[in-house]
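Consider the following assembly input.
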Amino acid sequence: MCSSEEADLLRLEEVFSATLARTNSLILQPLLSADPEPSDPCGRECLGLLQQLHESSQRLWEVTEQSLHSLRQRLHHPPSVGLETLLLLNSADHVLQAHMEYIKSYTDCVVVQAFQKVSKRRSEYWRSQWKKLQQLLSWASSEGSVGTTLCQALSQPLTQHVQKYILLLLSLRDTLDKRHPAQELVLHAVTLFGNLQSFLGQALDQAVATQALWYSLTSRVRDVLCTPAHRLLQDSQDIPVVVTPLRAERVLLFDDALVLLQGHNIHTFDLQLVWVDPGPDKRALRILTPEEELSFCTRDPRDQVVWQWKVTQAVCQALHGKKDFPVLGSGPEASVPPDCRCLAYTFRREGRLYQATYEGDWCRAKPHGKGTLKWPNGRNHVGDFCQGLENGFGICLVPQDSEDKFDCYKCHWQEGSMCDYGVCEYGNDEVYKGYFQAGLRHGFGVLDGAQQASQPFRYTGHWERGQRSGYGIEDNSERGERYIGMWQADQRHGPGVVVTQAGACYQGTFQGDKMVGPGILLCEDDTLYEGTFTRDLTLLGKGKVTFPSGFTLDGSFSSGTHKGLYTQGVLDTAATPPNPASTRKRQLGLGAFPVESRWQGVYRPFQDFVRSGCPGELQEALLGFHVQSSRELRESQEYLSCERSHPKDCAGSMEDILQELLQHREPQALQQYLRKALSNSRHPLGRLLRTLMLTFQATYSGIGANKHLQGMAQEEVKQHARELWAAYRGLLKVAFQRQGQTLEEEDVETRNLQVHGLLLPLILPSFYSELFTLYLLLHEREDGLYSQGITNLSLFPDTKLLEFLDVQKHLWPLKDLWLTSNQRYSLVRDKCFLSATECLQKIITTVDPREKLEVLEKTYGEIETTVSRVLGREYKLPMDDLLPLLIYVVSRARIQHLGAEIHLIRDMMDPTHTGGLHDFLLTALESCYEHIQKEDVRLHRLPGHWNSRELW
Amino acid sequence: MMAIRELKVCLLGDTGVGKSSIVCRFVQDHFDHNISPTIGASFMTKTVPCGNELHKFLIWDTAGQERFHSLAPMYYRGSAAAVIVYDITKQDSFHTLKKWVKELKEHGPENIVMAIAGNKCDLSDIREVPLKDAKEYAESIGAIVVETSAKNAINIEELFQGISRQIPPLDPHENGNSGGIRLGTQSLQAGRRCC
């Protein structure tokens, strides 16, 4: 059985279908046949809109026909076809969609007055159709214009149709049993069409209001604003507002833009980039846009509420991207627009961002979060923003005059300028890696000149507001020179040391990039000159030469008219030769650059970081980061992204690092922890060490491997150990603070013990190769003599050597050897005290001074054990016996560069050991070393009567 | 707890005069003997009270052979005191002693306390150096002098007590490192043990 309601529905659809067909042939087709002039863009636009209307009308007709078909099916085969097969019920959304499309096309036409405009062109024709048109309308004023009549003819049937749908569906529902399966479908359809009715009503009202708006505007303004998509939501003529600071006569809220009119000026604000805030009082409203901050004042609080609600809902709707259904403010999304949005915007106001386009995250009208900022000149910034400014990590490409050249800044930014650590690769191939402040190089940094440049250089040191200032090292590879010293305003200024490729070096005072006054010049042949000289190392003026022989020449020097050096002075050959080592081993730079302040710029960012409590977000600014090289970036400029391996991936967050610190406090664990941390360049301590190694290499490797710099180098290493320990303590303190505890202050003695006993051995390997080279050079001569000594002694058989060294015979360990006494006395070589010798040789297998000293202690133990065995009782060796034995062992161990080793151990040794056991052992070793250098040891030949014949 | 001062003392004198015997005797049967690491009889330590301080003697032996004399400065640098030993039965050894004194005056640390020990006083019947000579000489150079017998443990304690008395008390305002005076962590630990 089919209900009468269904039959009514069928009739309704039949009528609507017929009406659509009629309006189509009577109105739409004739309207579309009006062919506008090609020069009339407005006419073309209208025609386009009408075409769309025609299409959507067609779709609506098709849907109506489908619905009709489903109704007829049901009518003819009611038992086999259920109620749910009706299109109206099972595809109510589909039907709704067709209606909404039609409504959109129709209201578009209304807004731009398409019907009026097009019908005007053929008014004759329309007059002739007047009667037929009237028939289409159920109610119509006879005096309306053609345009109005057409408008009504295209909307009235729809309005009535929807209304009847609802009525019929409601009656249909009443006929159904509560448990009927189609019950819900019918209810759904009723709701939908009810909503559609509201939607339609609002759409028509908005369209009419928008259409009416155009009459109240000047033609210029109308031309700009009159687009089919605009719908007026609120007009300040209805509810007045006063806008400040931008004075506006009228405020129009459209569904996609907020428009402020000021004479002929139109300010349009995209609603997607509008943020609404309640004002300071109940009558005001604040509107935030990327470039304006407006205040809307209304006459009374109710008006404010209307404006605020309307603007807020309009923003929501704009962000949502489609019309709220059924009415404004009832969309599915939240009714409060989010503070953070992701959008693109091109800045229009003169200034830094003029014509730049920002694409990315916004928060309350400011770029905030990740985004890309592109300037029309090709400048490009990708990275983090905060409150409208670059803040956090970012990569900035700045194109240079010549094509294909970019300055690439990979930096941390703070409030729009570079701050903290950054890497800058310049278009001219220079590279700066270091710290910034307020956009300028500041603190520690390394600037590398281009490899191919005419004057290649590298500066490693301190900067102040973009200029070299403070302690710094500069290599000038063209001159083959390295300057180590103080800078001011990009010039050498203050004390400085210059080392040359040739091995000469000098120390003096610089001013304005030049050396002024007397200085100390040390030549590669160990000649010392104190006085004035030129940059090319020509002696000029008063001075005193000290020759390696000890002779001195005191006088004034000049380069004469011819080539060569002229001098007038006193040559003193009788002067007691000073300790030859005083010139040969003279150290430069000590005192001129106090070691505590030498690399302040490296320590300081770390200290600041710790002082501010190790904030996680600054971790990267301190540690640096890994990013693609600028070349890769240039190639993929279009897709410039600022991804980088996140520090979190590598070293864990600051939180974890601090947590780990607390867990490793026992000596053994602490040592292991520090060893791991120092070798990890993503750990703050490891990073600090890495930078210190860089400065150390920049100073002391290559040209800087000059023996006169050994003093500076060794005090620097010890200072680094102190600073690293302080850095560790700083981190520990923060870790304690986060636990709500305080770290006990340590006393000086504990600190010294940790610095020398714990940290120095851990960091020494990092500096060892440069440092040891300096010791090697410094002790080259002594090591040469020592080397001669051990070579000579190596010719001695064991017994001869023991005899030569005056070792008392009862201590000779010959018992161990299964030989005839003749053989024992002559043949045996490298057999006695073998265990001690082998033990001593291990001294070069470690760089840790304490381990070296322990090796020495063990060596003594071996000697004592051997002697005790020989004597058959425990024997405590007095020095009278020990020293010769030790000399024997040292000469047999044949350790190269023993002098360099000894002095390095002594310098790096914990000073608390002074006078103690280790000091004694080292002194004993040193005395052996000294003894072996002596002439009688080096040049002593085996007794003449000793020869092979006597052996047998 | 009493303050501990480490005092480096170096032993000088001909080979065979009994330098190390004196030290061995001094250090012997001392309670912390086993804990303090030593290098045979060449390096030993002993802590003794002195007034309200503890003096920890770090005793450095030297090789007495003539050929090693030139190495001695490495050993006596930084010493607070030097014990110069001669054999009362050998005039030569007293002669060597005078050379050491001269060298210390010229090249040794400033204010070094010098103590002269005439060893083997148990063999006074074959004495070659009269006590009077030694006393006069010591007086002339402002040194302590005692005749000792390492064998019979005569005057050994007295010798080192004499040195202790000669060491100027520590100026509380100056942790000076002159004369090898130093406060170390190790010494503090050692101090704890004996208190």
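Residues 626-642, 645-651, 944-952 of chain A have pLDDT under 50 and may be disordered. Ask yourself how this observation constrains the way the partners meet.
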